[in-house]
User: What shape does this take?
Amino acid sequence: MIKTFKVQLKPNNKQKTKLFECAGVARWAYNWTLGKQKENYKNGGKFLNDSVLRKELTQLKKTEKYNWLNEYSNNITKQAIKDACNSYKRFFKGYSKFPRFKSKKRTKPSFYQDTEKIKVTNTHVKLEKLTISRKKNRQKLNWIKLAEKGRIPTGKNIKYINPRVVFDGLKWWISVGVEEEIKIENKETEPIGIDLGIKDLAVVSNGERYKNINKSLKMKKLIKKYKRLQRQISRKYEMNKTKIEGGENRYKYHKTKNIIKAENKLRRLYRKIKGIRDNYIHQITTSLVKAKPKYIVIEDLNVSGMLKNKKLSRAIQEQSLREFRRQLNYKCNWYGVELILADRFYPSSKLCSNCGNIKKDLKLSDRKYECGKCGLKIDRDFNASLNLKNYPIKYKSAV
Assistant: This one.
């Protein structure tokens, strides 16, 4: 089992400069690869393998124009070329949209580190070739301080998988995968069905109900503060705009130092809100999986389709339903619990959990389910969770 660790870095000013330069090299290599693939496709050529492009880039490094690439790790450009080729392949297989060129303003700065050359201690991480000099005092530049001590496992037998260094707009982070073993207990409890929604995040068939954290007083205050800060930034942009000569209704917006400060404050607040939401989902999913049920059933919700509802789109987005499913999926794999995905058109809410009657006229506003056949009166979401629990009796579809 591969477990990922993400830890904040605390680089000094010189190290920050080098990290941004490395991210720029990765962006340049990605765009160069994408440009080569597009040009080759227009000329009627077949897909260029990443090994061919890497050899071409090696020859380019020998020229005077691209000699500056030798100052940075070869693994940064190598992995960027691989990433661009994989994105190109995924488009032609129909898995994603056509890859775009990475913009300096809009793209999140990130780059790859070699698994063999990265070194981790309890307090520092050593990155490859942040400095070319071999002097001891200059070599210290390669060692960057970690914000959390002993967070990443260390040892001779530990192999790090896919190390990446990322900048989120405020801080630098490093993420590495480490292969670990989890002791799985043989005990099993009753299977559970989970109904996800807006009023409550999750209603479980065993009677547990997890509330919508966005409705809590603390989150309401943070969201209100976030919206107010967004409006302040928007007004500051309007105050600092100038009209472009020769263009009708065209303006140029100036980013002042006060705007940059306000935007950084907005990023910090957003990270706090997102952290609270993600932590809440982590707590729920971990408690459900660690109970070791025989199996867990959830609905295959069409989240992208649900977001088209203008009245509910914000509430659905804040619930992070897709993130809930993602976390539940990999944690079930960790602890050996079977996760079953109910069919998207399975009438879990309209079906009576007692007699199996389907109530076709059930509205979204009806919070209580009343069966016209057997007279059952039950909470709508709890009824849906019971139906999901019994779903594998007739239907079964593994994730």
